[in-house]
Amino acid sequence: MTSDLRLGLIGCGQFGAFLAATAEKTGSARVVAVTDVDPARTAKLAALHSARACADEQALLALGEVDAVLIATPPAQHQGNAINAARAGKHIFLEKPMALGEAACAEINAAVRDAGVSLMVGHVLRYFEPYRSIARAYRTGKFGRALHFSFWRLEHDFLQISPWKGQRAGSGGYLYEVAAHELDWLRTVLGEPLAVQAQISKRPASHELEDTVALQLAFAGGTSVHYLGGTAFPANSHGYCLRFEHATLSSDVAFDPARLRIESTTGLSPDDLEFDTTDPYLLELNDWIASLDSGTPPITGDDAAATIALIESAYRSAGW
Ligand SMILES: NC(=O)c1ccc[n+]([C@@H]2O[C@H](COP(=O)([O-])OP(=O)(O)OC[C@H]3O[C@@H](n4cnc5c(N)ncnc54)[C@H](O)[C@@H]3O)[C@@H](O)[C@H]2O)c1
To answer: Cα–Cα 20 to 30 A to 318, which of 107, 117, 179, 212?
Structure first.
């Protein structure tokens, strides 16, 4: 099946369009049907991929020629989209965040299990450099014990991207829509946190998202993590400082491996990390497509649901 996987796309917005184009770049998949609640977006993307323009999700899911779906709708829609796709017998690639709340994730996972289909959640940071190589090097013991990590992902113009991003009912909030990336990555590196505490500030404004959100997390072995995010900053800024026993890794341009600095007691340098220059989204979709033949997808619904559980407990701790 995977040499010519026939895909349906649900959600033809900014990211759905990108995902569909990337899926075709794998050389193993074709986008054969698309749908969006906005008919103009459906028509535009259908024309681009010579795909069927479906009036709604039901029409797309009823097509026998669709083997699997890419879901790139706002987070509040993920639960319904994914459950309907599973019940229609389609394999699913679901964008992050998996869904709004642990209960919604549990319902998706139950529907997927009942239908015997495969579900992967798009936590692409696991494929992004330098995160991917840092995680791999840490696991092989190159840096020694993890002592303290600090992340910041400060947004200035994020709320202008799409109106739903500023509505908690649509996006879930900043931790769901943005911090889900780093929180998921942290789980893959350090395991499940022992504790999380959030502090949130919010002034009345036309949107509902956090101005600032500061998280403090505790992991086994004494590793502590601080994360600062939010939407009210005067400029976009995204970086990290990861302090290990034998090395400190830092960057003020998080997604640019060339900006990674390493101070090390063992002579380590960024060259030792061997970054993969392949598009991370291509790596992610290749992995997903390969998993449809070989079994378990690399990021399962149970795995992604644990990231949602972490987000929920962070919000609970702040009374948000
Ligand atoms: N992995 C990443 O790097 C990354 C980057 C950006 C966005 N995303 C994720 O992708 C998803 C979409 O984000 P976006 O930026 O493309 O938003 P967007 O607003 O540009 O697109 C969402 C689209 O979904 C459509 N839609 C809404 N409800 C629908 C429904 N029930 N059925 C069909 N279509 C529906 C909207 O009309 C819109 O066209 C979100 O989950 C977001 O978190 C992931």
So the answer is: 107
